[in-house]
Amino acid sequence: MEALVILLVPLVAAAVYLGARFQGQGIRVDPQAELAQLHERLAWHEDRLRRAREQNWDDGMIAQITGQLENTRKELVRRGAAPS
User: Fold this and answer.
1) CA distances (Å), 54 to each of 11, 39, 62, in order?
2) Which of 2, 3, 9, 69 shows the shortest CA–CA distance to 39?
3) What is the pLDDT of residues 15-39, one digit of tens each?
4) pLDDT one-digit tens code per residue, 25-75
């Protein structure tokens, strides 16, 4: 009985590992769709920042939005699609 448990645990772990590995290989990403999503995110952050300044949101929130905006811009530059 103990031998069965000793053999069963590594077999289950190997099956889970291989299943996850092969499941993840089927994922394909569309670079154009990702760039479009980044441009939409950039516009959204710009709109939020404009609204935050107009409505006098607290400095911490404005700093957070500014950081997110800069991260999105950096990601676009890294992908060779500089923001317009």
Assistant:
1) 60, 23, 11
2) 69
3) 899 888 877 666 667 888 889 999 9
4) 666 678 888 899 999 999 999 999 999 999 999 999 999 999 999 999 999
Tell which residue, 4, 5, 81, has the closest CA to residue 37.
81
CB 76 within 8 A of CB 83: yes
Whether pTM > 0.90 for this model: the answer is no
Cα(22)–Cα(8) distance, integer angstroms: 21
29: tokens are 């990403």
> Which tokens is 65 given?
């939005």
DSSP symbols for 31-77: HHHHHHHHHHHHHHHHHHHHHHHHTT--HHHHHHHHHHHHHHHHHHH
CA-CA distance, 82 to 77, in Å (whole number)? 5
